[in-house]
Amino acid sequence: FKELTGGSKMAQSGIYEAAFHNGTYFVKLSGHLSFNYSASFSDLVKKICETDNLQGVLVDLREAKMIDSTHIGLVARLALETQKKTGQQITIVSSVRDVTQSLKNTGLQHLAVLLDAPTGEMPPPDSIQALPESKRNIAEIILEAHKTLLEIHDDNKTIYQDIVEMLESSMNEK
Fold first, then answer.
1. What pLDDT does residue 117 have?
2. What's the distance, CA 32 to chain centroid?
3. 168: which residues sit within 8 A by CB, 6+ positions away?
4. pLDDT of residue 138
């Protein structure tokens, strides 16, 4: 795996690792997955979705300490785009109860196969090059991710609609 990290090792940040092997992306997200470091993951999602011979995606969250709504929205976007492109649902592996519950609370189980801490190791993948740091405004990434959450489950509208409206309003003022 090639490490793609949004922050220093000293800070509590997310670590993004990815590999492409026989048409399948293996994505490992670990640490504290918060919006502060979401640009790298957003770029990775875009790269995966643009892969010509994509056949599937496995997202490993077994070492994620927490996942915020921005990252869940990005995983949802990955699930939607993968399903459009391949006709297949992505697979998400999680062993941290709070992370799994957060995924279920947003309705992600309707877009992906959620597995709770299965046994066995992932196959040895080929490594990919690190993605360049995003130059996009972090607010755009947060807005995009939360709009995806609004689309995937009706209950999310009451939770995230205010965030989307606030971000759209503040971005229009600039």
1. 57
2. 13
3. 143
4. 61
Measured CA to CA, the distance from residue 141 to residue 14 in angstroms comes to: 15
Strands 112-116, 14-21: pairing kind: unpaired
Q: Which amino acid is at 8?
A: S
Provide the residue type at 45 as one letter.
V
Residue 122 has pLDDT above 60, yes or no: no
Q: Report the alpha-carbon distance of residue 41 to residue 102 in Å, rounded.
A: 18
What tokens does 51 get? 């892969």
> Which residues, in sequence order, are CB contacts of 55 under 8 Å at separation 6+?
22, 23, 24, 86, 88
Beta bridge partners, 29, equal 16
Q: For residue 42, what pLDDT is reported?
A: 92
- Contact (CB, 8 A) for 121 and 110: no
Half-sphere exposure of 55 (CA within 13 A, CB side): 5
pLDDT digits (tens, 9 = 90+) for 47-94: 999 999 999 898 989 889 999 999 999 999 999 999 999 988 898 888
CA distance 71 to 158: 19
